[in-house]
Amino acid sequence: MTAPTTGTSTTGRSTNGGAVPDLAGPGSSGTARRTPDRRSGSGPQESRVSRTVAMTVMVVFTVYFLVPIWWLLVAATKARGDLTTTNALWFSDMNLLENLAATTGYGGGVLPRWLLNSVLYAGGGALLGTLLAGMCGYALAKYRFPGRELVFNVVLGGVLVPATALALPLFLLFSQINATNTFWSVFLPSIVSPFGVYLTRIFAASAVPEELLEAARLDGSGEVRTFFTVAVRLMFPALVTVFLFQFVAIWNNFFLPLIMLRDEALFPVTLGLYNWNTQVNQVPELRLYVLTGALLSIVPLIVVFLLLQRFWRGGLGSGALK
Amino acid sequence: MRTTTRAVSVALLALTALTACSSGADDGAAGAGDTASGGACEPAGEPVTLTYTTWIPGIEDVVATWNEANPDIQVEVQTGPNGNGGTYQNFFNQLEAGNAPDLGQIEYDALPNFRVQDGLVDLGACEEVVAAKDQFVDWTWQQVQLGEEDSVYAIPQDAGPMALFYRADLFEQNNIPVPTTWEEFATAAEQVRAAGGYITNFSQADINQFAGLVWQAGGSWFENDGEQWTVDLTNEESVKVASFWDDLIERDLVSTYPGWTTEWDNAYNSGEVWTWNSAVWGANSIATGAPDTAGRWAVAPSPQWEDGDASAGNWGGSTTAVFQGTEHPYEAAKFALWLNTSEEALTALIEAANLYPATTDGAQLPALAEGVEFYGGQPIYDVFAEASEQVSPDFVWGPTMTQVYNDVSDGFSQAITGGGTLTEALESAEGTTVSALEAQAIPVAK
Amino acid sequence: MSSAALPGRRRVSRVAHKRAIAVFVAPFAALFTLFYLLPIAYAVFQSTRVVEREGTFGPPREVFGGLTQYAQALQSSPFWDSIGRVLLFGIVQVPVMLALALVFALLLDSPLVRGRRFFRLAFFVPYAVPGVIAAIMWGFLYSPNLSPFRPLTQSVDLLSAELVLWAMANVVTWVFVGYNMLIIYSSLLAIPAEVYEAARLDGASQVRIAWSIKIPLVMPAIILTAIFSIIGTLQLLAEPQVFRTFSSAVTSTFTPNLLVYSTASVPNVPLAAAFSVLLALATFVLSFTFLKVTQRKAFQ
Predict the structure, then answer these.
(1) In chain C, which residues have their Cβ closer than 8 Å to the Cβ of B409?
(2) What residues does the ABC transmembrane type-1 domain cover (chain C) (predicted)?
(3) Is A68's CB within 8 Å of C107's CB?
(4) B39-159+317-368 domain in CATH 1.10.3470.10?
């Protein structure tokens, strides 16, 4: 078993699905997949004490993870005066609808626009980024060609480059073709996901069996068609994972838009809220709008998590093999 | 290999095509150059569209008024974070890339920085601009000339003359006289502390405020004789001010909350902190940050270093500058003048963003003449109008103020958390400032 | 390309499906070249420039300056201080975070816990909060005056010079534990049950099974999360940037990336570029060393 090294492992040796940070399930190496349900029924030997300890740990940390979000939810329901004077963890006068109306209406209703932009940047970017990374990772895993390891290593090196180092030169490059302050100046750089290539390559190496590809070839299916009909299905768990991580990364990114964009109508929601936050000195009601806006900006991500959650158990990809 | 090369060029082409189609928001002027630097300030003779980047809240409505009246000079507003929050950085990037907007908001302290990067159009060639000089309070005009006799690098917009906001009720209840000198201020600080409060808050990140105090004391951190810069953060006045506050901090007579936080608001709202020697726009900050104290505040002139003096500092204030690369300096200047001198624009700016105009007439506008309820009905802007006249025209900002603020603020933070003094922070920042200038090949006197 | 009897024919023809490879690789390669390699090359180029000018307000000219900026960067004490700070941060925060993530993953994978779906989601939700917003939220929770946990925050100043680094570490931990937990958890799911069925039948405890079977098997996933955490630590930006607004103790050079940002806004782009290049190199060296060390220990 090898570590997921920066590309030195050969395809044959890196088939350990365990290296795949896979939301959607295991990179099965062909064994039947265990489901949690199957295990929970077993083991009367687990003592009541260890169960209690385990559950206590989980509950305590659930509080730790959810309290700040609960606080945000509560804060978004309060009038500005109550924000600092009432119990921060419980509701006072319900002001949520007023806050939502004021927040979404402020500045000519620019917040809904920002949310839409974020959905476009993150949704479109993650979709396209996943597709491109998946194709590249698949090719690196399934074809032998000169320079293959070089390409893979260079791409992996890309993971290490700090965001600040890229953003500034990117701005100057986009300026050369007069393309700063456009949708594309944020969208295009966001769709490059070196991590996605890494992940899909490892996954494809183990989850897409050669025999299946050969069979497709014998049936007369072209390579590209085989990818979309056979490989994509098998790689689906990894693709979902790449999509999710890329979606979150783009949604959270505000440094690139900060440098690229001048037109408020193009802002993603993080940059918009950051902008508001810097104006709190002049317009104090913005503090509440930032909190309400923050809540609104988290909701779509939680929805995405919930929607994709069914793939966590789905067992797509592994079941199709044997 | 050949396929790859072709694929890359196709992608490049596609990229160019995509962006070319969608660059509606772009201003055509690529390649910063001498389009406007040399002297000409001529009307274009055709309809033009200008871009203007600012962070004034509510500016859109003001500009809409202009657009309605001037179909041939349309202005598109773009808003961003405040200057040091990212907009200056963007301006610098855009200047380097040659696609800066036509006009931008720049605070006085950042003007030399943009001048050093060769980013500003000299409006000295525009007759209307030169003619407008007398409308502005003297020191604001000095600030935009950057020491050059015939040059004008921006149109002053607003000013931040400083005065003392204080809790009239608390001072009266505790029989503490409102200080008129800094010596009295220190005495009052002890009395206030004895009464359980803090006389004021010293926030380490507001270096502009500290600079305003040095400005009032008659010191200046920079000099520029045309040949080279002199960096003097530790001049006599500066050290005097620093030691004064060092002493108050050490004796725990002032609080040290970071500025502009909810805790800072809370310190004022709860009556823990009693005064704020701040700029005119601070009137609104208190009113919104400390709503529970409405009606209990008043404004007096800043304490003086010598009994009987009458000098004031300045904190903040912006200008409207025209950037290198614009093709329409004449129209840009015309808009900037309207924005910052006309009664309708100034009245709208006062209402939308609490700007305090840099023109003498602007300071007399009806919107600024009335008593303010939050301050017990006192016509507070009279105090500031007077202060504005007392601001020294000799204070010079350096060409790398962002760096200076960061370095001084880093040192002040240490001083407040118990490591070193404000004076030491100034000394060390002076050293780093000299190296920062040298790194930019800006000549510095040793 | 025709398949005439060129000398290189045999080598070339050995690569099957050239067209397909091009179709698969080219789009990503093109974008990667444009938006990663080109900017990096540009940053390296910029880092070799120095500014020249005449007089106080003379227009700046950039000329080639060799390694001047690197010499300056390496002599900069704020640079070394910031590197030292993130290293300290990483040495403490990364192990704590990964240990928590591992424990949670093992618990989720054990029969001891009910309501897995709920916990999995609850622990993962903070990952949905953008770094900037997480920092603003925690800023409120740390505040001595406004926090819901005032008894704690009033007696201990979490934003003081001594503690602010750890206050930030908590924010990062809060956001990323769930993410790392899922990575480890999904690789636990991939272990075939037979592997430790025997141990179970022998009556080995869950702790024992976790320690001697599960952990060694998911080591690659742990190492992967460790490397990403190391990279993330060296590139801390959003959290300190937001913390600056409410803590006196966070300076403009608190982390290397913040230093890059402050330097670029002077604007001293060449020096900022040199810092960035050094930072990228440091990141590379660290993750590579880590990989080598752990590989030797864990896999032989």
Answers:
(1) 251-252
(2) 83-290
(3) no
(4) no
